[in-house]
Write a structure and sequence with these properties.
Chain B: This is ABC transporter permease. Chain B: It is a multi-pass membrane protein. Chain B: One of its GO terms (biological process) is transmembrane transport. Chain B: Belongs to the binding-protein-dependent transport system permease family. The complex is a heterodimer. Chain A is mainly α. Chain A has one domain (about 10-205): MetI-like fold (Orthogonal Bundle), CATH 1.10.3720. Chain A contains ten helices and no strands. Chain A has helices at about 5-10, 10-45, 50-65, 65-75, 80-105, 110-115, 120-150, 165-175, 175-205, 205-215. In chain A, helix 2 (about 10-45) packs across helix 5 (about 80-105), helix 3 crosses helix 5 (about 80-105) and helix 6 packs across helix 7 (about 120-150). The longest helix of chain A is centred in the first third of the chain and has 35 residues, at about 10-45. Chain A starts with a helix and ends with a helix. The model of chain A has no long low-confidence stretch (mean pLDDT about 90). By secondary structure, chain B is mainly alpha-helical. Chain B has a single domain (about 1-210), classed as MetI-like (MetI-like fold), CATH 1.10.3720.10. Chain B is built from nine helices and no strands. Chain B has helices at about 1-15, 25-55, 60-70, 75-85, 90-115, 120-125, 130-160, 175-185, 185-215. The longest helix of chain B has about 35 residues, at about 25-55. Chain B is elongated. The relative contact order of chain B is 0.14. The model of chain B is unreliable at about 220-223 (pLDDT under 50). Classes of the chains: A mainly alpha, B mainly alpha. Chains A and B meet through helix 3, helix 4, helix 7, helix 8 and helix 9 of A and helix 3, helix 4, helix 7, helix 8 and helix 9 of B.
Chain lengths: ~220, ~220
């Protein structure tokens, strides 16, 4: 199995388009997943009876195969990008919800009581004390969700979308390995780069974790 | 929407749909065969590796990176790639499924082993237990919950992905999904998807039941 390098050279424009489309689907899903899971996680953290229900529900959603999720969305949103992003978002929820709840749980009670004693209101405490302290655990979830989404976009190639996944269909139908190899390598690269960027972002967002280590 | 679900219900309970080489019974058996065999092979490879890394503490770097590499690897691409390399055989599907399952099992086994309290291991050694006794009689039982979680995760992923076997012209429940997509028969597509989802959920419940049964006979952790 050899790589046809000239094919890559001839298709750089297509590859760029597919890579951007791939990235757009994955990142939209993670952003939407965060938007949905943050309020749900706060709810699960504060209202104990809801906790098991929400986490259990997201676990069941995770059990459903990705291709099945995409297919089951077809009657609702058809062969569109919406189906891809919705399906991926459902997948990010389980990781993001669990990690955000765990992150909020990890904030020491004393810290929250100190904020309360200083007269900080609950919403402000959540935004300025609890969420920042929960950030390392939340970011761990964001990293997993991002890498997973980037890998899963390809599955949407069966419903006519799928970003770099289209290279797999193309290579398979023409019995031509080059696009498939390029697709796998680009997907892995995207995932690695996105993960590294998120690590850097976390480093910038949580300066106090470094200060503590240095002292 | 309502009509669609009615048709779907009719498709699922139709007696004829369940028999013959294209029937749900046969496809279900194929799907289970792919999934269980791949998970067993993956476990046979991944469990010793995970136990070794966890027990010796060497190669932890490999275990941690393996999990993110496994998450990032696009399975569809892997199946097609091995398929193009090996020609028409079941190899691509099994290789891709095993490659998919190995990281989850290795990392969870490793995580379970490192979670075992160092004092407990010291105590076992202090009582004169040999290395293999510490491994099999102390570390392994204590790590079992996380190991089981890894196996469950791997099995769910494998069941979901075994759908792809049909994409490279093999059987399993994915047949309905891909044939349905090709024939623009949405009811068949949905039927396949629902069946795969059901198999995943049922197998996961079965394994979690097994997990609970295994731990019932253990002494309480801390009372």
């Amino acid at each position: 199995m050899t790589v046809d390098w000239s094919w890559i050279g001839d298709h750089t424009d297509d590859l760029t388009t597919l890579t951007l489309s791939h990235l757009q689907a994955a990142l939209s899903a993670v952003a939407l997943g965060l938007l949905i899971s943050l309020p749900l996680a706060v709810l699960a953290h504060r209202v104990r009876p809801l906790r098991g229900l929400l986490l259990g529900l997201s676990n069941v959603l995770f059990t459903i195969p990705s291709i099945a999720v995409f297919v089951l969305l077809l009657p609702v949103s058809g062969l569109t990008r919406t189906t891809t992003v919705t399906g991926l978002t459902i997948y990010t929820l389980v990781v993001l919800l669990r990690n955000t709840v765990e992150g909020l749980d990890s904030v020491p009670t004393k810290t929250k009581e100190a904020a309360k004693a200083m007269g900080t209101r609950p919403l402000r405490t959540l935004l300025t004390v609890e969420l920042p302290l929960a950030l390392p655990v939340i970011m761990a979830g964001v990293r997993i969700a991002t890498v997973m989404s980037i890998s899963l976009v390809s599955v949407a190639t069966y419903i006519g979308d799928g970003g770099l996944g289209q290279l797999f269909t193309d290579g398979f139908q023409r019995n031509f390995p080059t696009p498939v190899i390029v697709g796998v390598v680009l997907t892995l690269l995207l995932a690695l780069v996105a993960d590294a960027l998120l690590v850097a972002l976390q480093y910038v967002l949580t300066p106090w974790t470094r200060r503590r280590k240095g002292a | 929407m309502y009509e669609l679900f009615k048709d779907l219900g009719a498709w699922l309970v139709d007696g004829e749909q369940w028999t013959g080489p294209d029937g749900i019974g046969h496809r279900l058996a194929e799907h289970l065969q792919y999934s269980l065999l791949a998970t067993l092979v993956a476990a046979a490879i991944a469990l010793p590796v995970g136990l070794l890394i966890g027990h010796t503490g060497r190669g932890a770097f490999v275990a941690i990176n393996l999990s993110s590499f496994g998450r990032a690897l696009p399975t569809v691409g892997l199946v097609v790639l091995v398929f193009l390399a090996s020609g028409l055989s079941m190899w691509p599907v099994y290789i891709a499924l095993v490659a998919l399952a190995v990281p989850s099992i290795v990392t969870n086994t490793y995580a379970g082993m490192t979670a075992v309290d160092a004092e407990v291991k010291d105590a076992a050694r202090g009582q004169g237990m040999r290395a293999h006794q510490v491994l099999f009689q102390v570390e392994l039982p204590l790590a079992l919950p996380l190991i089981m979680t890894g196996l469950r995760l791997a099995l769910i992923q494998v069941v979901a992905t075994a759908t792809i076997a049909a994409y490279v012209s093999f059987g399993g429940l994915g047949r309905y999904v891909f044939d349905g997509l090709a024939q623009r028969d949405l009811v068949q597509v949905l039927g396949g998807a629902v069946l795969v989802a059901l198999v995943a959920v049922v197998l996961d419940l079965a394994l979690s039941g097994l997990q609970r049964a295994l731990f019932r006979h253990r002494p309480a952790k801390s009372a």
